[in-house]
Amino acid sequence: MNSVEKATWILKRLAQPPYSMSLVSISRELGMGRSGAHKILSVLKEGNLVTQNEETKQYRLGIAIYRMGNEFSKQLGIWDAAENIL
């Protein structure tokens, strides 16, 4: 799995319950070392794609994800999005 695939996996995983995870949990589930996972998370943090709670050190999705989703919903109406599912 390359770095882009790992970053994608992290974003998709943080979109699932419990919606926040520690570095150790992310690296364990991803099957990679903590330093490699930390490097990817640092890049995602710089882009506001993830944020880290300073007290708990848990990572969760960042505001940039909301903004992208909001723009996506403006471009693609609800019926267009539902068509693939239905």
Query: What fraction, in percent, of the residue positions are helical?
Result: 55-70%
Radius of gyration: 14 Å
Give the strand line-up of the largest sheet.
1-2
Main pleated sheet: 2 strands, antiparallel
Q: Spell out the helices and strands N to C.
A: HHHEEHH
Average the pLDDT over all residues and give the rounded result: 92
Strand content: 5-15%
General shape: elongated
Give the number of DSSP strands. Answer: 2
The first-to-last residue Cα distance is 32 Å
Query: Regarding quaternary structure, how should these chains be classified?
Result: single chain
What attributes does this structure have?
single chain, 5 helices, mainly alpha, 86 residues
Give an overview in words.
With 86 residues, the protein is mainly alpha-helical. 63% of the residues lie in helices and 7% in strands. It has helices at residues 3-14, 23-30, 34-46, 63-75, 78-85; strands at 50-52, 59-61. A two-stranded antiparallel sheet has the order 1-2. Strand 1 (50-52) and strand 2 form a beta hairpin. Helix 2 packs across helix 3. The longest helix is centred in the middle third of the chain and has 13 residues, at 34-46. The protein is elongated and about 40 Å long. It starts with a helix and ends with a helix. The model has no long low-confidence stretch (mean pLDDT 92).
Strand-helix topology:
Layout: H1 3-14, H2 23-30, H3 34-46, E1 50-52, E2 59-61, H4 63-75, H5 78-85
Antiparallel strand pairs: 1-2
